[in-house]
Design goal:
Glutaredoxin, three-stranded antiparallel β-sheet, 175 residues
């Protein structure tokens, strides 16, 4: 256990290699096909025709990630009321996602990006040599599949309200 903690600490303290630039606002959202916490496959195409909040997070069960997930959970009916979906993505595996989802009763999809390919495509993958993590960033995707907002400085505690307000504003501006 002590050796594992030392390895993790060393990996976290080493300078990360960043995975490139996030997709530009106005561009097509990068596609994905990943398994959720129940082992079921999901793709970006499944969400076509509705607003989609995609939030990337570092690690299941950590304090900030739990706060963010629980805030999305607590506001899920507000998202559903306006026809929007929420998807969380991290590089954790399906089993980790299942435990996290069950423990906190998450009523939305969390996807396992174990290889980090989707996180890389969205420019959020941080590679610390021995450890890969998605950074805490989010994207708002329009019903047409375009990135309409990128959140690169996410406060796990207030993020859900910000995303809901932005979806409502975008919806109102397209009427």
């Amino acid at each position: 256990m002590k050796n594992i903690l030392l390895i993790l600490l060393t990996a976290l303290l080493s300078a990360p290699v960043f995975a490139g630039e996030p997709p530009a606002v106005g561009s097509a959202a990068p596609t994905f096909k990943l398994q959720d916490q129940n082992g079921e496959w999901h793709s970006l195409q499944d969400y076509r025709g509705q607003w989609l909040a995609i939030y990337f997070y570092p690690k299941d069960g950590t304090p900030g990630c739990t706060t963010e997930a629980c805030n999305f959970r607590d506001n899920i009916y507000a998202f559903k009321a306006i026809g929007a979906a929420v998807v969380g993505i991290s590089v954790d595996d399906v089993d980790s996602h299942r435990e996290f989802s069950d423990k906190y009763k998450l009523p939305f999809t969390i996807l396992a990006d174990e290889a980090g390919n989707v996180s890389r495509a969205y420019g959020v993958l941080r590679d610390f040599k021995l450890l890969k993590l998605a950074s805490r960033q989010s994207f708002l995707v329009s019903p047409a599949g375009k990135i309409v907002k990128h959140y690169d400085d996410v406060d796990p505690d207030g993020h859900t309200d910000e995303v809901l307000a932005d979806i409502k504003a975008f919806m109102a501006s397209t009427l």
